[in-house]
Amino acid sequence: MKPPGISCGSSSVTSSRGRSAWNLSTLSSQGFLRLLGEPHPARDVDAVAELFAEISDGGGTPIGMMLAAVWRAALLAVAEGAPVESARAGLAALKLDEAALGSSASAGSV
Questions:
Q1: Starting at the edge strand that comes first in sequence, how are the strands of the sheet with 6-8 ordered?
Q2: 7 with 14: CB under 8 angstroms?
């Protein structure tokens, strides 16, 4: 859910007043996308993977780690110069089969 007054464009987030709140090319040039694309160096637990696990299947499979890796790869691709639209298209091409996740988690296999 987006905060009120924020709308997402193709490569930037714009405030309700029409001013750019931030731009992905700026974030990339400043190194922020690279920081977001890498696991936290001082933590044993991957908070991003845990979030993806919780919202996908509750941690019954390693899908959280896999989704975190894909998300980070998309961020790093943009940080290295790939067009934002191509990274989004790559992410959109992935489909999550929730029925398969449920059956794998209950069977205890991957």
A1: 6-8, 12-15, 20-23
A2: yes
* Torsional sign, CA 34, 37, 41, 43: positive
DSSP 1: -
Per-residue pLDDT of the chain (110 residues; tens, 9 = 90+): 333 433 344 444 444 444 444 566 666 666 777 777 777 778 888 889 999 999 988 888 999 999 999 999 998 898 888 998 999 999 999 988 888 887 765 555 44
Which helix (H) or strand (E) element contains residue 48? helix 47-56
Which residues does 103 contact at the CB level (< 8 Å), separation at least 6?
Answer: none
Distance, CA of 50 to CA of 10 (rounded, Å):
28
**How many Cα atoms sit within 13 Å of 52 on the Cβ side?**
18
Which residues contact residue 50 at a Cβ distance below 8 angstroms, ignoring those fewer than 6 apart? 59, 64
Round to whole Å and give the CA distance between 35 and 40: 8
